[in-house]
Structures are given as C-alpha cells and as structure tokens.
C-alpha cells in the first residue's frame, strides 16, 4: 500500500466534491488479500475496489491447509461479514468504518457490472491479471479527478501496469521497518566519555558472583532491558542492562564464555557477540531469544550446545524440540516417505552437522563413549514439522525454530504461543536469505518479533556479525 496517503473520504460516486477528489481509489490484487486478509482495513480514509476476478481467484485458492489457503478463506469470511451489514448499499459503496472498528473510514466497492475496456492486443483477456488491469483502466476513465492505484505483491503485475501508464504500488502495511539497517542489534558500544558522564554517584555491588553497577546519566533513558553494552580498551567492560528506570540503569557483568573453564558442552565463544549470545542462552530468566546472523556465525551450534547442557547436565528442560520451515532452495523433490521425523530428516542437515561437532568435543571419551553420547543426545532431540503445531503446548521444553526468516508474523505468533510453563524459545535466522514468496526483510516474522520483543524483561536478541565457519566461507560471504 502507498505510505500514509492523505485526505478525507466520501464515496467513489461523489467525485464532484473536493474532499472526494483528494481521496484515492486502491484496486487490490488477489495476492494482497492472500498475504494479509485484513488489508481491506489498512487504507485509512481511502476507498478500496475489488474486481470480480479477485473474488474468483480467492475461490480458486480456498481449498487446502497451506497458509495461502487459510488467508484466502479468512479474506472471504471478512468480505462476507462486511456484506452482511451492508444491506442495499453495495452499488454506492459499503462504509468500512464500522467493520474495521474505525481503523478505516473509506468505502469498499465491489464490481457490480461487466467492464469491457480496451487493452493492447498483445494482452490476452482470458488472463485474470489482465482483466484486473482492464478494471483499473475503466476506473481511471470514469473518475478522472481521482487517483486510481493498483496495489499488488506481484512485481510483474506492477511492471505491466506501469508499462500501460497505470499507477501501481506494492503493499507495505505489513512492513515492520522501512530499512532493516535500523533493526535492533541487541548490542550498544558505550562512548569513550561514558564513565565521565555516568560515573558520578555510581553504586556497585556483588550478587551471585556478578558485579552490579547502578549508574545515572543521559544515556540511561535510551538503554533497553537485556541489551548488551561494551567498551573496549585497557579495562574493557562487557555488561548486560538488567533494569532501566528513568535516567538510571543497572548493569550486570557477564560470564566470560570465551574462557575454556566456562565452556558450554565443550564449546567456547570465539568473539564478542558469541559470548553475548551464550550469556542469553544460558540465562534461566530469559524465555525468548532471537539470534540473527549470516551463514557460519555459529547460531545453531551455540543454541544446540546451550540446549544440550541445560537438558542433559543441569536438567532445566526435559528435551530439545527443533523445527523449521520446509521451503526448498531449488526445485522441490516431491513427497518424502516415512514418519514425521523421517520426512523432516532431509531438512535437518544443519542439526546433524552441528551434532557431529558437539559430539567430538570430548577427546577422552573414545569411540564407544562418543557412540553412547550420540544415542543419548538423539533420544533427547525431537524434530517436528510446523504443519502440526496448532493446538499444541510445550511444557518445560527447549524449542528451537531454525530458518525463522521464512515465517510470516502470523506463523511466528502461532509458534511462540505454543510455549507453556518452563519453556525457552530460540529463533534463528538470516533475513538476507528469505525463500518464501512475498516476504521481504522488512515484513519477515523474524524482523517482526525482534522489533516487538525488544526491551521485554524475559527476552533477548543478538545479531552475530563475524563468521567463524572457515576462512573460505568467510571470504565467499564477502566476495560472492
């Protein structure tokens, strides 16, 4: 959708009024409704027009259990609910103010007559997309004083519309951020003069082997709970913001997971961000963690190491449950045989690779010891498909959602709300590698939860910066 259009709305028919001429008409493509079923209510004071072909396509896509089918059914139910309260107002437009609870003040128009508009001969009229373009042509001629804009998630449809001289825009309302460079990283470098401005009247103390600093100053109001702060130099500081109250904040020093004595299942942190991530993963007070980073930054390895330690050593959780979106990078290889776990096995190569690394961390165990450990680990890790998550409740589990960048905000909500008492949820992903159609870096479910959960007492986020896989992988990530 266009970003925050202006003005106030009457109806399409009242084009003579100045207010109405400032009000735009947005013609929605089917994929917008299937992407966001509530999109009808997202155009504020402007009018929305639905061509008959959109209703046909919704009908064709309503069968099935996919997310698209669910959204098509929900969009149809929303339309049915709007029409149920419309009475005989369909021809003159249906006010969206009441159905949207005053979120939208424009009108909804449905195509109530046959529209035959001249399209270039190269465009076959049998195609749904071209019939929708014909509707936009018709509305443009009928209401010359008003802006008629096609809204579509289909890039080729928008290109085709612009080629024909029609206004076309993407649907942006589901975007969390305009620029993903502004996404919360979970880390803040303290300025060089930090202690000069915040050190006066500082209180410090020790609690459970950790040092606490209570500071006051201008930067405190900008800090978020569970945000990591650091300062390099001769006396480096690595700390976590535990509490923020007005212009004062409480900082807590970290456990140094780069030191071998603090290893987690034989794994030590190789850089600053990995150290921060392990502090979050091993913290029993943090229930929800998001780890972002490109390939090879150690997201899965750190998460599994922390999970195995807390399941098998400290017995904090009963088992690890791992799931991921099954979106192939290349061509789909078709149906897979076997049980749910066997079907998910080809998607869980990352799990197997990391378990191989974790299983080799104990050099003194020998082959027999390692084989026994492998069987023990396998018995405590369950691989589940996303398709069967609705209605489930995970109690006292360590839930890992891998490749979370391919989830929509709605799917993410479905998964996170599965968490019962004593469950920790860890989301891993790289928003630069999205394989799901119509999802972008700004509208991914992973971006959505990072933005919404920041500053909550029981959640934490880290963006891992440095690749630690190999010098070849790091160089390839830079130059390719």
From TrEMBL:
GO terms for cellular component: cytosol. Pfam families: PhoH, PIN_4. Keywords: ATP-binding, Nucleotide-binding. InterPro entries: P-loop_NTPase (IPR027417), PhoH (IPR003714), PhoH2-like (IPR051451), PIN_dom (IPR002716). SUPFAM superfamilies: P-loop containing nucleoside triphosphate hydrolases. One of its GO terms (molecular function) is ATP binding. Coiled coil: none annotated. Residues 24-159 form the PIN domain. CDD domains: PIN_VapC_PhoHL-ATPase. Belongs to the PhoH family. This is PhoH family protein. It comes from Azospira oryzae (strain ATCC BAA-33 / DSM 13638 / PS). The lineage of its organism: Bacteria, Pseudomonadati, Pseudomonadota, Betaproteobacteria, Rhodocyclales.
């Amino acid at each position: 959708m266009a970003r925050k259009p202006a003005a106030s709305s009457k109806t399409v028919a009242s084009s003579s009024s100045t207010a109405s001429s400032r009000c735009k008409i947005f013609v929605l493509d089917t994929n917008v409704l299937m992407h966001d079923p509530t999109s009808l209510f997202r155009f504020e004071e402007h009018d929305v027009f639905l061509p008959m072909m959109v209703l046909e396509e919704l009908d064709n896509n309503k069968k099935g259990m996919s997310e698209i089918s669910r959204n098509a059914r929900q969009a149809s139910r929303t339309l049915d609910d709007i029409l149920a309260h419309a009475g005989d107002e369909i021809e003159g437009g249906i006010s969206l103010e009441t159905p949207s609870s005053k979120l939208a003040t424009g009108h909804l128009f449905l195509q109530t007559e046959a529209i035959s508009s001249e399209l270039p001969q190269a465009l076959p009229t049998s195609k749904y997309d071209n019939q929708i373009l014909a509707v936009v042509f018709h509305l443009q001629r009928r209401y010359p004083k008003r802006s008629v804009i096609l809204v579509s998630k289909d890039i080729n449809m928008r290109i085709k519309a612009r080629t024909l001289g029609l206004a076309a825009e993407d649907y942006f309302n589901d975007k969390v951020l305009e620029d993903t460079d502004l996404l919360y990283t979970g880390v803040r470098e303290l300025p060089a003069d930090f202690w000069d401005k915040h050190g006066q009247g500082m209180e410090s103390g020790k609690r459970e082997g950790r040092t606490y600093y209570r500071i006051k100053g201008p930067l405190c109001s900008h800090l978020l709970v569970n945000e990591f702060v650091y300062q390099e130099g001769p006396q480096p500081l690595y700390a976590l913001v535990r509490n923020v109250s007005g212009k004062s904040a409480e900082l807590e020093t970290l456990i140094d997971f780069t030191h071998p004595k603090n290893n987690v299942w034989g794994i030590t942190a190789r850089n600053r961000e990995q150290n921060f991530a392990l502090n979050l993963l091993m913290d029993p007070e943090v229930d929800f963690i998001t780890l972002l980073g490109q390939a090879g930054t150690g997201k899965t390895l750190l998460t599994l190491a922390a999970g195995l330690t807390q399941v098998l050593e400290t017995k904090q959780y009963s088992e690890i449950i791992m799931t991921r979106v099954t979106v192939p990078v290349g061509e789909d290889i078709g149906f897979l045989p076997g049980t749910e776990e066997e079907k998910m096995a080809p998607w869980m190569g990352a799990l197997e690779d990391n378990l191989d690394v974790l299983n080799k961390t104990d050099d003194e165990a020998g082959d027999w010891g390692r084989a026994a450990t492998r069987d023990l680990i396998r018995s405590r890790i369950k691989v589940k498909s996303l398709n069967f998550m609705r209605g489930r409740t995970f109690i006292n589990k360590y839930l890992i959602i891998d490749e979370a960048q391919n989830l929509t905000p709605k799917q993410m909500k479905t998964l996170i709300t599965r968490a019962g008492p004593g469950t920790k949820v860890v989301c891993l992903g790289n928003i630069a590698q999205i394989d799901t159609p119509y999802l972008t870096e700004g509208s991914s479910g992973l971006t959505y939860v990072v933005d919404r959960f920041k500053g909550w007492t029981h959640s934490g986020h880290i963006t891992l910066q440095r690749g630690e896989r190999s010098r070849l992988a790091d160089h390839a990530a830079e130059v390719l």
